[in-house]
Amino acid sequence: MIPFDLVVVGGGAAGFMTAVTAAENGVKRIIILEGSAKLMEKVRISGGGRCNVTNASWIPNELAENYPRGGIKLLESFNRFAAGDVFDWFEKRGLKLKIEDDNRVFPISDSSLDVISCLKKNAITKGVEISTKFFVKEIFKTPDNFFNLINSEKDSIIAKNIVLSTGGHPSGHKLAKSIGHSIVKTVPSLFTFTTKENKLNECSGVSIKNIDLEIQLNNKSFKNRGDLLITHWGFSGPAVLKLSSIAARELFEQKYKCKLIIKWSDLEYEELKEKINNLKLNNGKLNLINLRPLPLLTKRLWVFLLNKMNINKDKKWADLLANEREIMINSLLKDKYIISSKGPFGEEFVTSGGVSINEVDFKSMESLICPGLFFSGEILNVDGITGGFNFQHCWTSGWLAGKAVSKLFNKVTNQ
What we know:
By secondary structure, the protein is of the alpha+beta class. Helices cover 33% and strands 26% of the residues. The chain has helices spanning 13-24, 41-45, 60-64, 71-78, 83-92, 112-125, 170-178, 238-246, 248-253, 269-282, 299-308, 322-333, 389-413, and strands at residues 6-9, 30-34, 54-55, 97-99, 104-107, 129-132, 136-141, 147-151, 156-159, 162-164, 183-188, 191-195, 207-217, 220-230, 234-236, 258-263, 335-346, 351-355, 360-361, 366-367, 373-375. It has a six-stranded antiparallel barrel with strand order 12-15-14-13-16-17. It has a five-stranded parallel beta sheet with strand order 6-2-1-10-21, covered by helices on one side. Helix 1 packs parallel to helix 6 and helix 10 crosses helix 12. It starts with 5 loop residues before the first strand and ends with a helix.
C-alpha cells in the first residue's frame, strides 16, 4: 500500500484549508477523510446560511483578544497568517468578500455555498482526493514510522503525515488521546441566557446598543459591553454571546445558573439622579409612559421596567415619590435577573475545550508529542467570540499546518 503524503481527518473548514494549502505548496498525495456524508456542513449553516468568514480585525494583537481561550499561543499563529491574509487568500481564489459595518466579513453573494464551492474547487483542482463516510476509529504508528488509519469498516489508509481537523466532535479527541495528547473537557461556548422573569417576553425583539452587562456566579464577576437582544426566552445578542464565551467553563460548573446585571444607562448614580430630578421639575405634567429618561429605552422596555419597579406607568413625573426615584435610579443602573439555564440553542455550535494547546507548536500546528501529527481548527482548546473569529482560527491553523507539512515534504523530496 503506497502511503499518502498527507491524510486530513475531517472535511470541515480547517480540514479543507489544510489540504488546499499543502497541495498548493507541493505536497502530492493528499486525501481528506470525512466521517459523515456531507462536507463543510458547519460552513453551510453558519451565519444563517451566509457564512461569517472572518472579522476585519487586521492587527494580530487585537485579533487575539477575541479568544477567551488561546491567548499568547494564538499570537504566534496570527503573526504568520491573520485576518487580512485570509481576506486576500479567498479573494485571490475567486471568492469576493465584503466588510459589514460591524467588521464582520461575508461573501458578497451572502451565500455560504460560495465559500464551500471555493474550497472544494481549489482542493479538487490541486488533486486532493476526498472520501466521505470514512469514519476514522483508530490511528497507530507502523514499524516503519508511518500512520495507519482504520475506519469503522476495518478499511485502512497509510499516511506519512496526518492532520486532525475533526472540530469539537468527541471522535477526534479520542484519537488525539490515543496518541498521547491531553484533552481539556469540552463544554458549550457562545450561547444565550434563559430567565423566567415575569413578562419579559413582552419585550421580545427589542434590541439595545452598547449596554454594560455583568454576570455573577461562584464569587466571580464577568463583564462585557455590547449590543443586547431580548428574546422570548431571555437574552441574546453579541454582548451576551461574548459573556457566555468568557465565562463558559464557570457557567458549566454552575449548571448555567447565575445573576445577570444590566446597566441601562452610561450615566453614573449622581448624574442619573440629577437627570430624573430635572424631569420631575421640568416635565412634571407628563406621564412616565410618555417620557422616557433614557433615549435608548423603547416604549415596550420602559413599560416592562416600570412594572418591574412596581411604579405606575400612568403616574405623572411630578408625582414621583422620593423612594420611587431611588428605585428607578438603582434599577436603571443595576437591573438584576436570575439566569436559570442556557438558551434553546448555541450560536454556531462552538465548544470550549479540546486538545491541550500546551502540547502543540502554534508556529506549525505540529504535535509536540508525536512528530508528523498536526492539528487544525476547533479540535484544539481554542474558541473565539461571535463575529467570525472561530472561522478565522480554522483558516489560520489550517494554513499553518498545510505549510508545515509541505515544508517537511519538500525537505524529504529534495534529499
